[in-house]
Amino acid sequence: MHRRRFLTTAAAAGAVTVGRLSPARAARELLVAEPVHSTGYLPLYIAMAKGYFEDVTVKIVTIETGAGHTNAVLSGQAFAFIGGPEHNAFAKAKGAELRAIVACVNRGNIYFCAAPGHEPPDSDWPSYFRGKTIAIGPFGGTPNSILRYLLGKWKLDAKRDVTLIETANSATIAVVRGRQAQIGEATEPYVTQGVRNKVWGEPFFNVPKEFGPYAYSTINVRLDTIRKEPELMRDFVRGMAKGLKFLYANPAEASEIAKAQFPTMPIEDLRATLDRSFKDELWSRDGFISTQSWTTASAVVREAGILKSDIKYEEIIDMSFVEAIRATL
């Protein structure tokens, strides 16, 4: 894909950039594609702000389409994408080779919130969700897959029993505010923003707590990049691991870095967002992706009917770099 065409496509998809976009150049300037600009990715932003990636400059581009961040890597326009490793499985099923090299978000960063007057009376989820309109992220994205997985568990049909409004993750607040949906499925910081603006109440269904360890967001690269530039992989993974370690060791300074990434977000909202994330143990502590966390992620997309093949852990996840740098941190 020509660079100009990629930038036009990204802009049309609602891309928001941090820094100047340019093609990824190993050991100089690397581009990481993200599906939404989220406090969930704070360890990556910390590593960028603290210079933990050593001799490379990392920049990000936000592409809010279900598979846009993955396609940016497959096409060679981005070095990596941050998102669920199930996208690697989707690519594998079609003959492409991607690998998750380090974890970021180790819980399902999704919460369900109800508009005022539509709160659930109890935890009979099949009865409550039946007939409701739900604002969710785009098809193919992890939040969308989680809802479809839950609907399947509750014996509800995504077409007949509920109405789904599939939109950009950042737009779910607007959909619920406009009374087009009674339920919003959202990530932070949008959960807290919706609560503070009285668009919906506190989450009534907490996926991080309900699902446990979950390979929700990992850094993913092409397999041929790993083979050609293993030193670059090791340096990048070390930078992410340092970002994760810093986050837990220095929450106050981490909050300042988050504030720089979300300058228009009221400080009270930002603090509430981070407090929820720490409480729910959202982030990985060391970058390691466990087999259990992939088992959960795989079950979501398999049972939702989005992934047809049984893709094994070792076919899409490479922990060799995390293991190699553990003793150096």
Helical proportion, percent range: 40-55%
Uncertain residue segments? 1-27
Give the amount of beta strand, in percent.
Answer: 15-25%
Determine the number of helices (DSSP H or I, runs of at least 4 residues).
16
CATH fold description of the largest domain: D-Maltodextrin-Binding Protein, domain 2
Topology as a string of helices (H) and strands (E): HEEHEHEHEEHEHEHEHEHEHHHHHHH
Q: Give the count of structural domains.
A: 2
Strands of the largest sheet, in order across it?
Answer: 1-3-2-4-11-5
Major β-sheet, in short?
6 strands, mixed
- CATH homologous group name of the largest domain: Periplasmic binding protein-like II
Main attributes of the structure:
D-Maltodextrin-Binding Protein, domain 2, alpha/beta, 329 residues, 16% strand, 16 helices, 6-stranded mixed beta sheet, disordered N terminus, 2 domains, 5-stranded mixed beta sheet
Kindly describe this structure:
By secondary structure, the chain is of the alpha/beta class. The chain has two domains: 3-108 and 213-328, Periplasmic binding protein-like II (D-Maltodextrin-Binding Protein, domain 2); 111-211, D-Maltodextrin-Binding Protein, domain 2 (3-Layer(aba) Sandwich), CATH 3.40.190.10. The protein is built from 16 helices and eleven strands. It has helices at residues 3-12, 42-49, 68-74, 86-93, 125-129, 142-153, 172-177, 190-196, 207-211, 223-228, 230-249, 251-261, 267-279, 291-303, 313-316, 320-325; strands spanning 16-18, 29-34, 57-62, 80-83, 98-105, 111-114, 133-136, 163-166, 183-186, 205-206, 217-222. The strands form two sheets. A six-stranded mixed sheet has the order 1-3-2-4-11-5, sandwiched between helices. Helix 2 links the parallel strand 2 (29-34) and strand 3 (57-62). It is globular, with a radius of gyration of 19 Å. It starts with a helix and ends with a helix. Mean pLDDT is 89; it is low at 1-27.
